[in-house]
Structure formats: C-alpha cells, structure tokens
Amino acid sequence: MWRSLGCILLLFSLLLPGIGMSEAIGKNLLGLEKSPYLLQHKDNPVWWQPWSEAAFEKARKEDKPVFLSIGYSTCHWCHVMEKECFEDKEVADYLNAHFVSIKVDREERPDIDAVYMHALQVMTGHGGWPMSMFLTPDKKPFWGGTYIPKRQFLSLMKAIVKSWKEDRAKINGAGEHLTQYISKANYSGINSFEVKDDVFVKFMSRHERIFDKKHGGFGSAPKFPQATALRILLRIYARSGSELPLKMVTDTLRAMAYGGIYDHLGGGFARYSTDAKWLVPHFEKMLYDNALLALAYLEAYLATKQQFFADVAKETLNYILRDMTSPQGGFYSAEDADSEGEEGKFYVWTDKSLRDALSPEEYRVLEDFFEVPKGGNFDGGKIILSFKKTKNWQERYTPPLRPVMEKLLKIRSKRKRPFKDDKIITSWNGLMIEAMSLAYLVTGDERYLEAAKKAARFVLRELFKDGRLMRRYRDGEAKFDGTVDDYAFFIRGLLALYQSDFSEEWFNAALRLQDIQDKLFWDSENGGYFYSVGTTLYRLKEYHDGSVPSGNGYSLLNLSMIHDLTGNPRYKNKAIKAIESVSEALTKSPAAFPSVLLGVDYLNARSKEVAIVGTGKDDSGVDKLLAVVREGFYPNVVVALDAGGKTKIPILKNKSPIMGRATAYVCEEGLCKFPTSDPAKMRAMLRDIKRLQLN
User: Fold this and answer.
1) What is the pLDDT of residues 342-367, one digit of tens each?
2) Is-above-0.85 flag for pTM?
3) Following DSSP, what letter does each residue of 576-628 receive, concatenated?
4) Where along the chain do its domains lie?
C-alpha cells in the first residue's frame, strides 16, 4: 500500500499553474550548528533549518509540507545529492517557495533517523542515505526515498505540491495510517522466557546457506562485514565443536583483510565492499565498524591462536590511535570516502605513481606480495592494493616488504586526506573502549588499556551532564540526550574495562549508568528498552541490528553480567523480560538479531562468575589464574578480582585465599565449585559449558 502511494505521488505529471516565489525572506540556519554534516550544507541556497519545534510551527503557519533530509558527513551519495540538488538554484528556489526544509545529522539524532527509516522501509522495502522524506507539519511521513537526481526531484516536488493543494485529505490520510502502522510494530511480551538453543541452529543454517564459499562473507555484492554475526558463529563453534562455523568466520576474516576493503598501508576497514571479492570498497571508514571488526578478529585469535587475527586487530586499532583519537582521549567518528571531489583518491594508486615512488627493486617486492595490475582494478585504471592470497601475512612486518610499505605510507600521508568527522559519539566510543580493552587482554600492550581508560574518563567527564549521558561532543559542546545505544554500548565498554584492570571506578560507573538507563528507557508494560528518552513521532523500541548493533541486545548482556557480579536478581529479571518481549520474532528469524543472541548465548551456555582473591603480597599466583581466563575463548565468563582485601564487588564477598595462596572461585548462579589455586583445575571448570547440538 505504502509503496503504491509513493509511486502515485512520484508519477504525478499534472503540475499546478505557476506559483510565485514566497515574498518572505528566508535563510539557511545551519551555520549555527556544530554538526560537521549540517555545516557542510550551511552555504546551500536551500533555507535549511535544523530539527526543531520552531521549524514545524513554521510549516503549520505557512501551511506547507516539510522536506526532511537525513544523512551524515561521510556519506558519498549525500554529497552527490547536495551537488546535484541542494547547491542548484532551481531546486533551492522551489524548495524555499513550497516547503519547510529540515536537515538532520543521523549520527547526532539517531532517534529521528530510526523512526523515519522505519517508515521508509515500510513504504519502499529498503532504506539508505541520504534519506529524503516528505512530512506533514505534524511530522507524519507520507512519501519517502533516498538519493533522487535533480530532474526526478523537481518532478516529485511539483507532484507533491499539486497533491498538497488539491488532495490534502489523501496526504493526511496516508501520513496518519502509516504512522499508526509503524507505531504499533513495537515488540510486546507475549511468550514466557525460554529461548532454546534452536535459535542458534537456525542462525547457523541460515548463514550456511548464504555463505560465499569462494570469497567469504555472506550473500552477494555489496558485501558488509557483519562482525556481530561472525562473533555469534564463533560462539556456536565454541559450544558445538563443529568446524563449519569456525571456517565461515576465519575464511571471511581472512578474505576481508587480504582484500581492498582493508587499508593495507594505514590500517582499518572501509564501510563495505561494492563487489563480492572484498576488492573495491566504499572508502569511508567508520569508528563503529573498526571497533566491531577488531572485536571479531581478537575473538577469532582467542578461538584459534592464529597470530594473523591478532595482527589485523592491532593494525586496525593502531590506525585508531594514530588518526582517530582526540587529544582529550575521545575517539572521532569517521573519515570520508572522498577527497578532492573523487571517491577513494587518497587510497588508490596508478602503476606510474607506484613506479615513481619506488625503486625498481622496491617495485618488484611490492609486486611480489600485492596485486598491482598494470591496467588497474578500479575506475580509470587506478589500483587498489590487495594482498596476495598465497603470501604469509607475517612477511609484512619484516624486510624486504616492511620498508616498502612504510615508504608508500609516508608518500600517501602527503596527499590531501579525506574529511574527518571529529565529533565524539558516546555509543561508538563505548564500542571502541570494549575493543581496546580486549586488545590489551590479548596483546598485553598498555597503549590499548590507556586509550580505553582515557576515552572512558573523557565520556564520564564531558558527556555525562545533569545525571544523564549526552549523545555527542564537538567543539566544547555536549548536546542531545543519549539514546539507549549510548548507554548500552558505553556500559559494555566500562564492563570490559573493569575486566581489564579491575578498577572499581569502571564497575561503579557501569552500575550507576545501568540504573539510569532503566529509569529512562525501560518499557514497564512489555519489557525491553525504548530507543529514546522522548517521543519524535512515536516511541520506538528496536531489537534488530542495523549499521550498529542493537542497544537492547547489548543491554541483555550487560544486565546478565551485572547480575553475575552483584547477585542482584532484578538485573537478570530485566534481561529475561527483555528477551520475552522479542522472543517470538527471535525464534522465527534469529539471523536478524545477532546482538540479542550475544545475550541469549550468555544465559543459555551457563555463564561462569569467576572470583579471584589474592593475598596482597605476591601477585604471581593471581597472574597465573588470570592468565587462564585470558588465554582462551570464554565469551560467557565474567571475572572479579580482589588482590588485597579492599574490594566492594558483591561477588567477592566472603571469599578469601586458601592456605595463603591466590585462589579462584568458579561459580554458576552464585553456586561455587570447590575453590582452587591450580590453573589446570580452573581451566577445566571454565570449559564445562552447556554443549550445543547442531544436528
């Protein structure tokens, strides 16, 4: 129905008689904003306004529909539509005369983006950015699309103006019906809690069917990394012992790292690959993608002990430390795909530019290890570097290849860099704090721990205001109420940080923020967390993963871990109620909910609480017990440490060293096995998990 409405409006060919331009003087108000995306549009001739009640009041007073454009600073097609439409006087004049135009940065206001993206997907069956929505003055959507070329956009606007003048009831009716439909689609609890392990069997079966056996990854082009899905497959492997899920993970991670989606000189992954082979990326780099992929590579290392996976994670995180970290410690958001008006220009080479940069011997070395076709493998004969599949990754770190790569990186660094979006987003920083914390546990590199700590302190200092988390920080300003993602991802980062250095500063902050999240977002009627504090058009509750994981999914894991550390049943009860809210949809389509499955796996696999107590005199015993936890892939283990008898973590209460030696208490649901100081016995206890049967 909604697609039909869009088609009807799009295909209107009868135009209204000529209407004169508005006599009212308007102006573009985006120059007053902090968002890099909004500031990119501050000089457009369109009279843009930021999202505000004043903008909608203007639409009501002037009796105009609203054009809502949503995008982000590193979005390639957003730049294209700006150049074709929003910088064009003809388009701007028509927009200014007949619409109130509102511009939204989806990264600053994901609450607005989520609501209208849901509407767009209902209308058209797909989504994307830029998002181009037409609304009534009471914010109800009646037509939606993504990128629209100039001529089609002009025709569309004229058709909408005609319908607005001649058939207002139809537009209002469509907006009302669509709003009612999407507002009723929130998850409500109807099943009692018992999400069985069948959901993992279904998840595995689905991914086995769509796995690309030749190139790795799932489905066809364009290919996205799907880091959280890979992490679920690792958990399926750990519990089932089946080699197939492990092979899907390792083949995919290896193919991505060897391909062009990975920046071989500077580290870090691009957003996605435009082809099935992971060769040609869409060159933008997002903080959240690199955090999630670093986690996947680090967990793959723990599951396999293959150094390759740890090395890729380290290169990725070194890129973040070098290029994406603010002096205050927060992590920046993204780097654009374009530079100097050309997609990928910063990253690609020509055969001539490579030969000019290198000596003949250096070029031969490069050609031996990298695919460098003389005719190019990208637009205009350009070359995207990809590592030859026959080569050993470790050879990148020694001569003769290492000096060649360093030389090319130095030369590339003199080029004009893509635009960097330097706003600091709470939720994405939480993901990177988690990745840095795990990297420290895997590598022992103190740089990662220090980066995680510095970022966490930055968020707590600059983005926690008046008892609430804020969404983004830029240029000295923290603004916009945090969403459930901001709380859930940051809490997850704090819990991971506590597992790294056992400073109760992080645990206490996580506990305080979880209680605030529960007060602000909890759906007391149906369970689960609403996405935002306030209401945009309606109050959305989301469990599906999108470009980032689900805040509800991460909350399940947080609640379960906090329950295990505190013994307080209300946290686990909330986790169970949240799962009940989504259980019917999850059971039918588990592949749509990988983040939720992280929490379900934690509960189903019999999570372990490990309390380690030391004597306060000799840390060697503590170190040996901690090494057991950190050497293996134990995703469903949470650890608390009392090295000297001063902790206030509830799980450590009444636990003490046995016979003057560091001691581990391995527990399930508060029931502890016989304490041990023997690392081998502790290891055996950790491996005693609920097995998963795939067949």
Assistant:
1) 999 999 999 999 999 999 999 999 99
2) yes
3) HHHHHHHHHHHHH-GGG-HHHHHHHHHHHTT-EEEEEE--SS--HHHHHHHHH
4) 2-183, 347-414, 608-686
